[in-house]
Amino acid sequence: MRIFSLILLLFLPCVLSAKDYLASSPQEAQVIFNNAIAGDRVFLRNGVYKNAIIKLHNTKGTATQPIVFAAETPGEVFFEGGSTLSLSGRYLLVKDFTWRNGSASPSNASVVAFKNGKEYAFYSTVSNCVIDAYNSLPAAETENKWVSLYGDHNTLENCLLKNKTNRGATVTVWLNQGEPAYHTIAGNYFLGRGNAGHHDNGLETIRIGDSEASFTAAHCVVALNRFEDCDGEIEIISNKSCRNSYLYNTFFNNDGGLTLRHGNACLADGNYFDGGQKKLSYGIRFIGEDHVAVNNFFKDLHGAPHQVFRAPVTFVNGVENSVLNGYFQVKNAVLRSNIFVDCDAPCIRVGAHTRKEATAAPEGVSILENIFVNEKGVSGVLYEEKEHPSELDCADNLVQGYAKAMLPEGFLLVKAKRWKMGSAKLESIVSGDTSLAEKYVPDLSVTGADWLSLVLSERSGAKFMLLSPAEVGPLWLR
Question: H or E segment at 451?
């Protein structure tokens, strides 16, 4: 007991020395924050602040006592005009702010950046913030990113990012070649990603990496986010690095999908894709090696008849000796234990390509234990080959309502609404009862991020997850 009391006394002065401050201006808040010690909290007085350029830098935060910059009242501090915020250092927390009524910032600037010059942020978080239609005028040609993640072990959580229409990805993860990032993007609401200039590239909602760093194992986790009306371009998420995980996200009513564009060994697990009324909606596009898609739910996806890359699941043809920004051959791809309901045919398209040099057909494709249901009388074949893959492995796939024509071995037509997959059952799946669907557990030592985010600790047992708007975004808006 005496030893415990002595330890407590040694640490007590550090705990008690942390203070709360109320700043009257962004400039005052910046000065206080940059001179703060572990555990200090700097609150900015409620109000509207125009053209505030805030640069936070502090290395004194700790895992248990981060240095905090927050609104006096969540949701009552507004940044407008050309306001930006950048943070660098260790164990920093920024929360509860709103950026709105933006004017065009300098080209390629970020509204929120996890760096100052060459100084990066580490183990830092931006939480419960809103960026709404910000820096989007002139909408078509001004290019900027809303959030740029640098450094490692940083988090963007419970934010609302709404109505971005200009060029530049909404959220970008910037990588140094060969250096893992271990970032978390979780619990956010991405709403209304438009395309004012009708461009066909560079308007992603999330991009992780780029062509130059595409062989870097980033180990980022994108989890429990909702993407709604994200129509900026074909790639809502553009994966451009290795060993990332996309877990339990909801994609609702989007003209786009998840593209594994560059990099290898990424995991898409437990995501819910509902195309709603969007005619160009799709699910997952495979490019590269060792990607795995398991336990996902694909519903009412309509892109397959309109564009070759927009089937619910597409395995793309590669280019021999591809350059970094080209198309690498699909190898050792796994599509397992997923559910497809009333998707426009084909549900699976293999060997898709749009250029004559894309002659490298997928090599090693496994399609196992998936369920396909067509209750709406969708016409067309379930499975389509533009190029025949080598080493195709199909087994234990159950099909209701799609034509048998062109189905390879391993697809079984059934009529009953009672399904048996090993020891598990899936009953009346068309009515939405999927609680008994078997969940496949992937091996995180070989695919996806090699860690499981804490935000998933209570949900990882679910097969997939549908998140409503009330379950994502800032806590003070719920």
Answer: none
DSSP helix/strand/coil, 269: strand
Summarised one tens digit per residue, pLDDT across range 322-358 is 999 999 999 999 999 999 999 999 999 999 999 999 9
Contact between 286 and 296 (Cβ < 8 Å): no
Overall pTM > 0.90: yes
Q: Distance (Å, rounded) from C-alpha 412 to C-alpha 396?
A: 7
d(CA 290, CA 442): 12
H or E element, residue 192: strand 189-193
Residue 426 has pLDDT above 60, yes or no: no
Contact present, 447 and 265 (Cβ < 8 Å): yes
Inter-residue contact 457 to 142 (CB < 8 Å):
no
Query: 388: left (phi > 0), else alpha (psi -120 to 50), else beta?
Result: beta
* Contact yes or no for 297/244 (Cβ under 8 A): no
Cβ–Cβ under 8 Å, residues 243 and 262: no
Beta strands 119-122; 115-116: pairing state: antiparallel
**pLDDT computed for residue 31 by the predictor:** 98
How far is residue 264's CA from residue 285's CA, in Å, rounded to a whole number? 13
CB half-sphere exposure, 336, CA atoms < 13 A: 17
**How many other C-beta atoms lie within 10 A of the C-beta of residue 5?**
9
Cα angle, residue 300 at apex, residues 297 and 304 outer, rounded to 5°: 100
How far is the CA of 367 from the CAs of 279, 378, 407, in angstroms?
Answer: 25, 21, 12
Confidence band, pLDDT 50/70/90 cuts, at residue 462: confident
Q: Of 26-40, 216-230, 449-463, where does mean pLDDT reach its minimum?
A: 449-463
Counts of helices then strands in the chain (DSSP H, E): 2, 44
Residues 6+ positions from 473 with CB-CB distance below 8 Å: 130, 158, 159, 160, 187, 188, 189, 226
The H or E element that residue 27 is part of is helix 26-34
The structure tokens listed for 180 are 């893992």
Residue 11: is its pLDDT beyond 60?
A: no
Average pLDDT (165-186) is 96
Alpha-carbon gap, residue 253 to 225, rounded angstroms: 14
* In the predicted structure, residue 3 carries a pLDDT above the cut 50: no
What are the start-end ranges of the E strands in 128-256? 130-132, 145-149, 155-157, 160-162, 171-173, 184-186, 189-193, 206-209, 221-223, 226-230, 235-240, 245-247, 250-252
Is the separation of the CB atoms in 311 and 340 below 8 Å?
no
Within 179-323, where are the H helices?
A: none
Model pLDDT for residues 116-159, shown as the tens digit of each residue:
999 999 999 999 999 999 876 556 677 889 999 999 999 999 99
